[in-house]
Amino acid sequence: MTYFQELDKSWYLSQAALAEYLDTLSELTERLEGLQSFARLCRELNQADPYRLIPSEPKSLYLLAAE
What we know:
Structural class: mainly alpha
Order of helices and strands: HH
Helix content: 55-70%
Mean pLDDT: 82
Number of helices: 2
Largest sheet: none
Strand content: under 5%
């Protein structure tokens, strides 16, 4: 426990920045994977206009069925 007391504030700040960076990278990766899945669905359905697959009503959350 004394080891952690000897670390300076810059170490803690760099660790916090690194954790935030990795969290953001993880979120972006998940979004990219979702976009790739949607693009794959559009290609499989031979759908040139991807907006036709997204329901317009009601304006809320929606799920696309995965086959």
